[in-house]
Write a structure and sequence with these properties.
2 copies of one chain form a homodimer. Chain A is built from 15 helices and 27 strands. Chain A is α/β, with parallel strands linked by helices. In chain A, the strands form 4 sheets. In chain A, strands 1, 2, 10, 11, 12, 13, 14, 15, 16, 17, 18, 19, 20 and 21 form a 14-stranded mixed sheet that branches. A 7-stranded mixed sheet of chain A has the order 7-6-5-3-4-8-9, with helices on both faces. The first copy, chain A, has a 4-stranded mixed sheet with strand order 24-25-26-27, with helices on both faces. In chain A, strand 25, helix 14 and strand 26 form a beta-alpha-beta unit. The longest helix of chain A has 17 residues. The termini of chain A are far apart. The relative contact order of chain A is 0.08. Chains A and B meet through helix 1, strand 9 and helix 7 of A and helix 1, strand 9 and helix 7 of B.
Chain lengths: 539, 539
Amino acid sequence: MDSTMQDVPLTIGQIFRHGQSVFGSSEVLTYAGDHTRRATFTEVAGRVARLARGLRRLGVREGDRVGTFCWNHQEHLEAYLAIPSMGAVVHTLNIRLFPEQLAYIVRHGGDKVVLFDASLTGLLARVREALDGVDHLVAIGDGDTSALGEVLAYEELLAGEEPSYDWPLVDERDAAAMCYTSGTTGDPKGVVYSHRSTVLHSMAVTSANGLGLGQLDRVLPIVPMFHVNAWGVPYAAWMSGADILMPQRFLQAAPLAAMFAEHRPTLAAGVPTIWNDLLHFAEDNDVDLSSARALVAGGAAVPRALIAGYKDRFGIPLTQGWGMTETSPLCALAIPPRNSAPDDEIDYRSRTGRVIAGVEVRVVGADGNVLANDGASVGEFEVRGPWITGSYFGQEDQGRFHDGWLRTGDVGTLDGLGFMQITDRTKDVIKSGGEWISSVELENAIVAHPSVLEAAVIGVPDPKWDERPLACVVVRDDTDADVGALSAFLESKVARWWLPEQWAVVKEIPKTSVGKADKKVLRSLYAKGELDVDVVDRG
Amino acid sequence: MDSTMQDVPLTIGQIFRHGQSVFGSSEVLTYAGDHTRRATFTEVAGRVARLARGLRRLGVREGDRVGTFCWNHQEHLEAYLAIPSMGAVVHTLNIRLFPEQLAYIVRHGGDKVVLFDASLTGLLARVREALDGVDHLVAIGDGDTSALGEVLAYEELLAGEEPSYDWPLVDERDAAAMCYTSGTTGDPKGVVYSHRSTVLHSMAVTSANGLGLGQLDRVLPIVPMFHVNAWGVPYAAWMSGADILMPQRFLQAAPLAAMFAEHRPTLAAGVPTIWNDLLHFAEDNDVDLSSARALVAGGAAVPRALIAGYKDRFGIPLTQGWGMTETSPLCALAIPPRNSAPDDEIDYRSRTGRVIAGVEVRVVGADGNVLANDGASVGEFEVRGPWITGSYFGQEDQGRFHDGWLRTGDVGTLDGLGFMQITDRTKDVIKSGGEWISSVELENAIVAHPSVLEAAVIGVPDPKWDERPLACVVVRDDTDADVGALSAFLESKVARWWLPEQWAVVKEIPKTSVGKADKKVLRSLYAKGELDVDVVDRG
């Protein structure tokens, strides 16, 4: 049976028109160190129309990709609104990528025009060859852009255009924006957001169980707009009439503290490193965060001490969120459940997050079966929903999808209240007899032994169990390293079937450039027989 | 260009599963006067599955309509969740309709099964003939149902069924629920909500600029679930984990005060009459509303004095909402904009409402042209959006649609902040020379004259202007009624072209059964030449 409802698509144009017609007096503030530029939504909306006209004049048509290579500022927001509203696709380029990744993305995305910050000319010039396929480069702001050859000026593109545009009707499933993941292995993978996914994600961000973004807020997206759409904050803020405070390149503790003091944001979002820096800065400096009702952290696990630090020092909740480029990104937020004891607050906030409405999360075991949401069964998280990707742009799916669900590569548990707890990455777990052994938990248990300085556990092939753990340990100089004793020590700490049979005492654990254990090297050493392996017989 | 997003439909099943898997410890409370029944979402979810199995056993298939004839209680919520989730359509029957309307609706909707409160047997028995086409009647609760012949018991329907169901995949545009408008003229008109419209509306209700419903709330829907889905509160509450406090038939001030005192809802929604009663009750009784962060009123214009009364007496905002059966209903909420002066709060709250994201509202003049959102241009409100109806179920559109927009029949202004102000119904405005004259404003201006007791203004045919106003007035016995003087009095009060040329002094204004001016009678008297009309020549 059909409904009688109107068939009105969910589009970014609709978000744009709502902010324009209802929240014209809300503001976009762009912090510039010694001053702050301000513009009302009405003023921004006029410039959005002029930008669309200018891009149209440059030949941008529906479905064309327009790249941005920018910090967070008003013009970047204008691009976010104009490009999808005119039926084109805004492609945010991550300014922090290696040149070869950036070149790949510009080419693979097929960008027709690239808007860039003149101040970032040097970074963009490193991929000048990849820009040969781009018809027009448009520079925002002042700076020497000569290294990029012929360049248009953003303000000249807008000058002389009328502040109105005959916005086209678009299908809600059409592409609106795209973003590439920047994994450390293989080519970057493109995710293409639709108008529909963006509207639904924005609604989720504005929900009370989400970030609760509304017309009384002033939000500071510290997370870059080239990083998963700044977690959806720009669109959600425009839709809900929240002021947006843009930090540009001023992401250090001192200017952030100045922004909080002067512009009093009610909400701010950034990676844990930023919040850690600001907390340390506050040890020796006056920092006033009293305007903030919450701070949001994501992009990496948020340390418990950091959450406790913000509570103790400022009385402000630091809310951990979880998501990925593939998930728009908001999937889960670690907000304590109703009726939880005050003493449990930090515990709940330290978890990965509680699944938000619109997203379905499940835990899948090594054998592909869905496990119970019991807070104990460990498996890979799989995610499903209207703002979750179902493929990659112009690339094979690389085994990342399972019955229409996205395989996240994260391993952990889901409890009966919808709280996720990530414990591992799939590449770091050992698949043994159809079950998973956490290398992270084994390592934590092993280093608890007083003789052990460092430990790294890898999975090695096993004819019967598929894989078994091999523990590589660095022991103190003054101890008599007895792997039998270490194994016995572990027996009370982990499940018996987790106990490694194979141990290797090594001089040091090889490290990656960022100081993490380089397990690829250990696996390679093992494969070549270059590890001195002891076998512990547990009888 | 296509997006890479998953094609996951928006369904009530998704709402159901989210509440079940994430908010299992939230509660549904059903107030029963001397006690309150409580059930967790987990318990309710099990019963929802059992209800779906029971209905399936009775022969309910996808697309079938299942009627409900119930107060607000846990079982009604179970029906709300089970029926659409199994692919059928929940059809809420308004227990307050006249028997002929109710009979029409049951027949026109084609209900296959009707769930009803045993306590409402008498009301339902008045349309017993219309129930001949219904396969099964299912009684909820205790009471003598013998007047309805063979009846199944709800608890027996559930008994013995497993608390799980293999929920089908449904298309998001499929029918999920239906509700008939109960206008005073013509047959009731059916509106069929889709899964998509219900999910989007629920997300809007949970948004910060909406009702902000979230997991920390306990919501009291006083507005009946047979009245436009209790304004969407049940689905939004289940989706967001808010406790739901169901008042059943206890809608009087005393039991409502008891519910507030005992169960401490954070939010409650009802018509202005209810809030007026409660405010008066509080004059002579202890009433503790301190648990509430806001009260929501809708269904009729909310008097300014009522809003001020709640602010003065309780310090609680009474938030006026606007919508219709045709609009799911939430379209606008009268929440003061950011940075508004405290003195302006009651002014803003007294307006009809501010348009919420997802809904587009425009003002259209008598000539069909869209007018400016300037707070001054008067026209009919037209509404567009994914939760607005685009037709009526199995009926002609009755001139209610215009280029895909719903014509609301309400007349007023829209300002630059998205605030609507309704001043008239279209049937009460006079179309003169392509513009509209408000009969309400004219009447208010006329009765301000000390000689006038009552006034009613109607539009009468005019060869040049299409329509012109005719003012019918009742004057005080002791005054010398001079329509020339009345006309002169009006000149400083309304636009010159609004001034009625024709006046009729009458003994009384004919009234409808609810005491409103019966303009149909006046128009008929005029057409028959039975009004004694004076013509004022303004030269």
